[in-house]
Design goal:
213 residues; alpha+beta; 6 helices; 8 strands; 27% strand
Length: 213
């Protein structure tokens, strides 16, 4: 194991220990164990029509409920949308590392599909503690090129925020590369996210957040 891998593993172990001793530990545990995050969430967050009149359904799945085909589709969507941006970043594109991250225990997936079963996009995240706050951390939000400008991304965000609120998380947090101008505009300009106080000044990314409770 290389130095970077050892350092990352040590950091992850320290974070797990911090979570276990956090006053938010029970809240995070209960939210993570929930069978269906969309249960009792407003139906308008689960079923909607696109501007072109197509009906879209949102479904929530725990990591272990994803089929191999669904995970492969989600990973390829991340790769096609983000690999070039990652390659320009300090961390670079590490395919094995990205797959491992997407399979982090406790990861939740919101999948948007049309009535024919075609997958249009997804959002994924973890209930976690950051800067002593209980948060629903958004790891990915991806929309297929065929479904752009059809409100799919916005509806995924709204559902993600509704889940965060339902389970008593203080805010949704996410990481966005500063070079990702499209993402920066979407999160800040359309979804009203702000740079979090936890965000480092000297990084090539921003940590953004929005209060949900």
């Amino acid at each position: 194991m290389g130095k970077k891998a050892k350092a990352k593993e040590k950091k992850e172990a320290a974070k797990r220990k911090l979570l276990e001793t956090s006053p938010h530990a029970l809240l995070i545990k209960e939210a993570t164990a929930a069978a269906n995050l969309l249960e009792d969430v407003d139906d308008n967050s689960k079923i909607f029509e696109t501007p072109s009149g197509d009906r879209v359904l949102l479904e929530c799945k725990n990591l272990e409920q994803l089929t191999d085909a669904e995970f492969s589709w989600a990973f390829q969507l991340v790769k096609s949308n983000m690999m070039e941006l990652y390659q320009r970043s300090k961390g670079g594109w590490v395919e094995k590392g990205k797959k491992k991250e997407m399979k982090t225990p406790g990861m939740k997936y919101l999948i948007a599909s049309d009535t024919k079963g075609n997958q249009l996009g997804f959002a994924s995240g973890l209930f976690d503690v950051e800067d002593d706050c209980a948060v629903f951390y958004l790891y990915e939000i991806m929309v297929d090129t065929s479904a752009r400008k059809q409100s799919v991304g916005m509806k995924l965000m709204q559902a993600f925020e509704a889940i965060s609120s339902k389970f008593g998380m203080e805010k949704v947090m996410l990481t966005c590369l500063k070079d990702n101008t499209g993402g920066q505009h979407f999160f800040k300009g359309k979804c009203n996210y702000e740079v979090d106080s936890f965000s480092p000044d000297d990084a090539d990314y921003d940590i953004l957040s929005k209060k949900t409770s």
